[in-house]
Design goal:
With about 350 residues, the protein is mostly helical. The protein has helices spanning about 20-35, 50, 60-75, 95-100, 105-110, 115-120, 130-135, 135-145, 160-175, 220-230, 250-255, 260-265, 275-280, 285-315, 315-345, and strands at about 5-15, 40-45, 85, 150-155, 185. Strands 1-2-3 form a three-stranded parallel β-sheet. A two-stranded parallel ribbon has the order 4-5. Helix 1 links the parallel strand 1 (about 5-15) and strand 2. The radius of gyration is 23 Å and the shape is elongated. About 35% of the residues are buried. The mean pLDDT is about 95. The site of tryptophan has 13 residues, from strand 1 and helix 8.
Length: about 350
């Protein structure tokens, strides 16, 4: 018989700051799209425990960003009656499962994780890294498998986490001779420039500490200021000079955000990205003109998001209730998987009298 149950989606974000354009094109936009197909059961998690793995001394920062991230979720068009929002720390299964899973993962396997490697480097942890940080890929596997999620909309940087999760699923199902855990797969953004949106300064990572982000809640004048001072091709000095579009932040952003209708509205003298890039490469197209176009595009994209955010900001108690209700639902869902896991491992001693059958 065909399985009519909707496929499950799970994803989440660390609440270490407000969400920015990188989050938007990397995953948020895809979540809204998937939500609106009506074909999935979608869970979106605020990963406060994962955020604490390198912020143990600053829980207040995480706390302050819980509702900020919730507002960003609602602002982009995720809807409480279509998506379940929850807080990671409210779901006990998410810290019980890693206890079982961590026995299925070797130290050398954790050390090979490229995302962890680069994060360790970025934070200058060297050997002083928190154990909780080192093992967060196991915790992330718990996040995903606790909901039996098939699809995980994330940016490319999360692929090693998905691979780790699949390995845990396969080991678990094999060792405990069951098929209760579901192998998840990533859902990446549609085009490559969205996978890792560079910072406005051209740095490969958009990050709050580098001050090179454009936030979803950014005011129009600030968007404009940031766009007009964006890094471009440093060798494109005069308008007549040939310019380079590869690696040029302004073009990377345009690849991620521009749509044919934006050309019709803001830059009708060009048929689309190909023609714009061709002109820039050939020479004769100034950075200011391209930046003005990008500014118009971003203003058009962000205006409805900012409006929706302002609307929800007026109703913070409702936002709080949405998260609370979602967390309760998520707790029940994950609790069921936990029971399956304990039963498969035969450590459900007091749910039956098997222990007496010696
Ligand atoms: N690691 C993700 C990030 O840094 C956040 C996250 C935690 C997550 N648990 C997850 C993403 C489960 C997808 C699925 O953004």
């Amino acid at each position: 018989m065909e399985n009519k149950k909707p496929k499950i989606i799970l994803t989440g974000d660390r609440p270490t700051g407000s969400l920015h354009l990188g989050h938007y094109v990397g995953s948020l936009r895809k979540r809204v799209e998937l939500q609106n197909t009506g074909k999935f059961d979608q869970f979106v998690m605020i990963a406060d425990l994962q955020a604490l793995t390198d912020n143990a001394d600053n829980p207040e920062k995480i706390r302050q960003n819980i509702l900020e991230v919730m507002l960003d979720y609602l602002a982009v068009g995720l809807e409480p009656d279509k998506t379940t929002f929850f807080v990671q720390s409210h779901i006990p299964a998410l810290y019980e499962l890693p206890m079982y899973y961590s026995n299925l993962v070797t130290m050398s396997r954790l050390e090979r994780n490229p995302t962890i490697k680069s994060e360790i480097k970025m934070r200058n942890f060297e050997r002083n890294l928190p154990v909780g940080f080192m093992t967060y890929p196991i915790s992330q596997a718990a996040d995903i498998t606790a909901f039996k999620a098939k699809y995980v909309p994330v940016g490319e940087d999360q692929l090693p986490m998905l691979e780790q999760a699949r390995e845990i699923v396969n080991s678990f199902n094999r060792i405990y001779k069951c098929d209760i855990l579901v192998e998840p797969e990533a859902v990446l953004p549609d085009n490559a420039s969205c996978n890792r949106l560079v910072g406005t300064d051209g740095n490969t990572k958009m990050s709050k500490s580098l001050g090179n982000c454009i936030y979803l809640a950014e005011e129009p004048e600030d968007i404009k200021k940031k766009v007009m001072s964006m890094f471009t091709d440093p060798n494109h000095l005069r308008v007549e000079d040939p310019g380079q579009v590869e690696g040029n932040p302004v073009f990377i952003y345009l690849d991620a955000f521009s749509k044919p209708e934006y050309f019709a509205e803001f830059l009708p003298e060009y048929s689309g990205m190909d023609e714009l890039k061709e002109h820039y490469t050939r020479g004769g197209l100034g950075d200011v003109k391209v930046k003005k176009f990008l500014n118009n595009v971003l203003q058009a994209e962000l205006a409805p998001i900012r409006e929706r955010r302002k609307m929800w900001e007026q109703k913070l108690p409702d936002v709080y209730d949405i998260l609370k209700a979602g967390s309760k639902k998520a707790r029940e869902t994950a609790g069921k998987t936990l029971e399956d896991v304990r039963r498969s491992m035969k450590i459900d001693y007091f749910d039956n009298d098997n222990l007496l059958k010696m």
